[in-house]
Amino acid sequence: MDALHYFAMSWLSPELLALTALGTFLGIYVGAIPGLSVTMAVSILISFTFSWDVNYALCLMVGVYMGGVYGGSRTAILLNIPGAPSAIATALDGYPLAKKGLAGEAIGLSTVMSVVGGFVGIIVLAIAAPPISEFAITFQPRDYMLLGILGIMLVGSLSGSSLARGIFAGALGLLIGTVGLDPMTAEERFTFGVVELWDGINPVAVMIGMFGISEALHQLHHMNKAVVKQKISRIIPKWSDVKKYMPLSLQTSFIGVIVGALPGTGGDIAALMAYDHAKRVTKNPKVPFGEGAKEGLIAPEAANNAAVGGAYIPMLTLGIPGDAVTAVFIGALFIHGLNPGPLLLIEQPHMFWFTVGNLTLANIFVLIFGLTGIRLFSKIVECPKGVLIPLIFLLSIVGAYAINNAITDIWWMLAFGVFGYFMRLYGFPVGPVILGVILSSLTDENWRRAILTERGSVSDLFINMLQSPLSAVLFSVIVLILVSKTPIWKKVFKPKIKS
Amino acid sequence: MKKTTITLLAALSLTSTLSFADYPTKDIQGMIQWGAGGSTDTVMRSIAPHVEKELGADLILTNKTGGVGAIATKYVNAKKADGYTLLMGAENPQMYKILGLSNIDYSDMIAINVLARGTPIIVANNDAPFNTMQEFIDYTKANPGKVKIGSTGKGGLTSIVLAMLDSQVKLDYISIPYNGDGPALTAVQGGAIDVMPAVLGATIEQIKAGRMKAISLVDVKANKLLPNVAPITDALPGMKSYLPWGPFFGVFVKKGTPDDAVEKLQAAFQKAAFNPDFVDLMQKRGFTIMNISGEEANYFLEAYRSTSSWLVHDAGFSKFSPEKFGIRKP
User: Fold this and answer.
1) pLDDT band at B21 (very low <50, low <70, confident <90, very high)
2) Is B180 within 8 Å of chain A by CB?
3) Tell me: the pLDDT tens digits for B102-125?
4) Contact between B183 and A183 using a beta-carbon 8 Å cutoff
């Protein structure tokens, strides 16, 4: 009964309702602008809402979080610039849909599936938070390393026609990711003595350049190509479509919750894994992946919004942030005099249901705001190129600067943009580069922690890996995926399946 | 032409003196050395509104992370010394010189306020086969190369506490670096590491909830928040020469900032740090309020630098000798 009361608190108070709505609305636009991250928006709101009642502050921030994660898909679909790394996979099939004149339908479908994902995340948070957080913290460095390797294997899904080129691009990404101070020894790597490089090259700068600028240059190259007229008759997806894709979006939502709940990984990796999952389970897509497959659009969208609920799981139960945004939430709770930690659920039991209720509310607002204004947004793609290309440049430059208020990031972004353009010109996929940059530190750090734990003994690492059930499962999955892609496996098993 | 130039210059200098007289006339930028959600970030964001009220100007906070805070430090020192760019940092810069990270530390800046100091504590996984400092030392001696201790990189709190320990007793353990105490403390709970020295404030909630256990308080006396945890000097009396020691949070401006601006900032921060909300917040987290500036702050900063630099140097992981920078032996 109490739970229900707290759950409904933000629904029944007009002020809290309005603040959640406002937060969600702002979040969608903050999330859509590349470089403006949800983390940054929420930390600015901490100072802004300092003197407010904690519930008011939380409503606004939860709205921004939920809306922001969804908003990243907007620019990914319309302009091929993912608003955040968690929308990279969305751009792979969302933008091709927009180029076919289906931007409206793509945004409509991604909105509905984001909301589905959001709900799955919230439901799991509500019913299974304590066991999942206990499970999440048992991940050892070697498990994160295996997750990283599993992630690197997604290169296969992101490569398009040539695996060799995909592997090259992925390896390049891993290399870019190693720039900066060595996370273990603080030794400089590829920094050439430049302090600005100590923190490495920001993955978001690489992402904005490789997707946004390279797209603008690509369009400059094809100036004579006519602008596609957008079909905006259908925005709310067909019920039959929703039903058809529901199993996939539920599956990828679960990937999102679990990956989101792990303290070392977040929505970006979840979305990429979901994309890979969609590609694997969809036997005969109507449209090939990478050319506008709806499966490739909905899988990452469902997963990254489900990761929001996931990230709250360790935060609310143990005071351990599931991602960068929930880390800021912990700071906010502390500033408001609450003690975020394992005792939060006991000392402030209302916090849990209040947050669950508020997340649910914000998710409903995502649906409402997401489905309105699509017609107007679809027009962006119809803009004459003389307007569109400068617009992409402007967004990219502002976005790159916003990451860390550093001019350096703009130069990196532009350089990777030009580089990305040439990569695309010669048929190299850019997705694996970003994948590599994102996974580089996860794999590198955890491999080294894992091997340090065993005092440098590789054999001990393997023995312990096979003795731990969790590591053994992850290891077998990697082996299975690897073997199932080899020619021998295909020769043995494919004919049987066909007959 | 010449005349106009002179008039222009005169006007310019006039307006600039005027603006100093009325400091602050515009928004003040605060550069936080560490990321959003971290302890430095939380402390600075909770004092900022009180400072804004005192100064009557907006304080715009930005997280400028990287290079253990050296990037923000460098940034603030590259700006004009006009009091409009503040460095909001932790203890790390005091180690920059001997670790070869930067040639600027807090002795090259003006301290506006050293807000608070934290107390280090040594925590362990609940299943670890030791409960006190002495048991930990005995176990590690009996099982060389078995105990896994988390760390947060050279020059951080963990490395200095371990250097202090090393000066008293030689232990053989595995050191596993993490990016900050947050992930490392999660690893303690998950069992990936056994022991972790961290700041009391970051561990208090977990200890109270029984999710990890406190082995020893790195201080000369017990703390009110954890009265049952023995100070480390009980097991290792030799540690007295380094303690009390702890990480701190402070606000700094570039050298050469006009006195008027410095005084106004110092007054505003001093008042803000006395605000009951802020005091309450800091005490709940086990931070000791310091609220010092001027000579007092310089003395504290110098003492910290001297103790830590020589510890790190004697433990063998400094790049340069503290002597090179005229850092006195404690």
Assistant:
1) low
2) no
3) 889 999 999 999 999 999 999 999
4) no
Q: How far is A303 from chain B (nearest CA, A)?
A: 24
B15: pLDDT strictly greater than 70: no
Instruction: Kindly report, residue by residue over A154-196, the tens digit of the pLDDT.
Output: 888 888 778 889 999 999 999 999 998 787 777 788 988 777 7
B148 touches chain A (CB under 8 A): yes
Identify whether the C-beta of residue A217 lies closer than 8 Å to the C-beta of residue A80: no
- If asked whether residues A479 and A423 sit together in one domain, one would say no
- State how far the alpha carbon of A158 is from the alpha carbons of A114, A154, A169, A484, B35, in Å: 21, 6, 10, 17, 31
Helix (H) or strand (E) holding A369: helix A349-371
Q: Are A77 and A103 in contact (CB under 8 A)?
A: yes
Q: Burial level of A250, CB count in 10 A (0-12/13-18/19+)?
A: middle
Nearest CA in chain A to B194: A453
Residue A141 confidence (pLDDT) above 70: yes
Q: Which residue among A321, A341, A342 places its CB closest to the CB of B37? A: A321
The CA distance from A232 to the nearest CA of chain B, in Å, is: 41
Across the interface, do A342 and B211 touch by the CB < 8 Å criterion? yes
Give residues 198 to 227 of B whose Cβ lies within 8 Å of A. 204-206, 208-209, 211
CB-defined contacts A:B, below 8 A: 135
Options 3.40.50.880, 3.90.226.10, 3.40.190.150, 3.10.150.10; CATH of B25-117+247-325: 3.40.190.150
Residue A336 has a pLDDT of: 86
| Interface membership of B283 toward A (CB under 8 Å) | no
Across chain A, mean pLDDT equals 89
- Does residue A498 have a pLDDT over 50? no
Contacts of A144 in chain B (CB under 8 A): none
> Residues A57, B58, A31, CA angle at the centre, nearest 5°?
50
Domain ranges in chain B with CATH number 3.40.190.10? 120-241
> Looking at chain B, which residues constitute the CATH 3.40.190.150 domain(s)?
25-117+247-325
Q: List Cα–Cα distances, A129 to A114, A132, A474, A488, B211, in angstroms.
A: 21, 5, 22, 43, 17
Do A497 and A349 belong together in one domain? Answer: no
Q: Do A337 and B186 touch (CB under 8 A)?
A: no
Superfamily the domain B120-241 falls into: Periplasmic binding protein-like II (3.40.190.10)
- Whether residues A331 and B41 touch (CB distance < 8 A) is answered with yes
Helix (H, G, I), strand (E, B) or coil at A285: coil
CA-based nearest residue to A295, from A244, A232, A240, A255: A244
| Mean pLDDT calculated for residue range A307-326 | 92
Pick among A42, A46, A201, A262 to test the B interface (most B CBs inside 10 A): A46
Domain assignment of residue A484, given as a range: 468-499
User: Which chain B residues contact residue A327 at CB under 8 A?
Assistant: 35-38, 182
> Does the structure show a pLDDT above 80 at B155?
no
Does residue B259 contact residue B293 with C-beta atoms inside 8 Å? no
Tell me which of B179 and A101 has the higher pLDDT: A101
ipTM of model:
0.84
- Among residues A122, A151, A162, A91, the alpha carbon closest in space to that of A428 is found at A162
Q: Are residues A327 and A476 in the same domain?
A: no
Proportion of chain B above pLDDT 70, given as a percent? 94
Contacts of B170 (CB under 8 A, 6+ apart): none
Pair (A362, A478) in one structural domain: no
| B11 or B218: which leads in pLDDT | B218
Q: Count the neighbouring beta carbons within 10 Å of the beta carbon of residue A473.
A: 12
Is the same domain home to A412 and A495? no
* Residue among B17, B177, B261 at smallest CA distance from A445: B177
Stretch 62-81 of chain B: residues touching chain A, C-beta under 8 Å:
62-68, 70-71, 74
